[in-house]
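Following the same procedure, backbone shapes were mapped to integers, as reproduced here:
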Amino acid sequence: MKHSVSRPLRRWLAALTIALGAGQVGAQTDTMGVVSATLAAAPSCISYKVTGVCFFLRCTPFGCTVETSIRVSHYMPDVVISSFNDQYIHPWRDVGGAVSGIGTSVGSAMLSQPLDASGNTGEAKQSVAEPTTSKSADAIGNPVVLINNVSTSMVIPGVSELMSFPSTLPQIMQEWATAPASLISNVPSNVAGWMSNPSSLMSSISGVSNVVGGLMPDLGSMSPTASSTGNRSNFQGQLQQFKGMLTAAASAGGGGNDMLCPSSSDAFGVYYQSDADSYFWRSIIPLELLYVGSWLPGYKEVSKTAGLTTWGSLYPRIGEVVQQHPVKASAVFAKRISTIITQPSQPHIYTRIKGKSPRSYVWFAQVADPKFSMVYPLPSGCTTFGDNDSASLTSYGDGRTTQTNGHIWNMWTRYECCKRKTNIYLFAVP
């Protein structure tokens, strides 16, 4: 038996459907959600363990003695990496959205034209045979490091690492020396010119530096904006809960309640923002094409199996990847950004996360071996990207998509240290 629906009711139902759909499109998370997702992932990500013993020498007028402290290793959720289409639907609504608004303004001023939205997941460009995904992205210090940080400063993207990029040319050319000889013929003449004429490369970089220098007041507002937007008073209880997890892991691992290595990242610090890096993230100045990995298929892929990948290439580290699945594409972008912000002298506008090395510790590893956990839309434990699921009925990202194709990841990095007992460090075992 058919039931008829009146025209006014049909219109009302249609309007309701549109309204509900609009609400889903705007689905995002906030700082409380980021902290909650970090807590949820902590048990599988911290990986606390005692790795040895450090020995120190203490001398007094009455003689010398040897003192020891425990050497430990564990992970910290240093940075929150987000990928998104534009500032208005940034998945980290309160912090990322505010930072992205500044980044878009800076990028527009750099290029002297408005920036278009980045998203085109699943669209095949006419000149490209395979579907590509384009996204904007950023990397912001996770607020939970407030509980385990020796100091906090305002971090914003800068050009100091970019200015030293030409010093890496010998290493890049050494890599080209081992690549197939025919590969160099694919490199555009302007890029090949940079290889043979470093002064020309330096001139291009200096030009960017001068432009960025004029926009420093705007860039300088990124970190204070992020910090003031992510109201710390709202999640103090969750921060204490995370600290409890860390100390419990340390106690269970045999390190004692207080044996933890401080994080090197700064809460709410902006280490990377792709719109402020538009010259390079959008490949307007294609410095990433200097790398062999940008030209050699199957080389430096986001993959756990050599020669097999269903994810995407690590290079070039730009805002476009050949990948139709939005979650996998986001994971590739997160991996690309992790290799930028953890290394010196990369061809981007960013600030590197580097060890603070407080004198009260002896360090064996800082900001090492990144691994990732999803923050949004589905909080999950830690994983290493690159599983080959080509023969599987389901893909890694199935069930984790969003209508806005915005995703958030935590980048956890490994620290290994021991507390300094005296100024005279002898050695550690093992």
Q: What stands out?
A: The chain has one domain: 27-407.
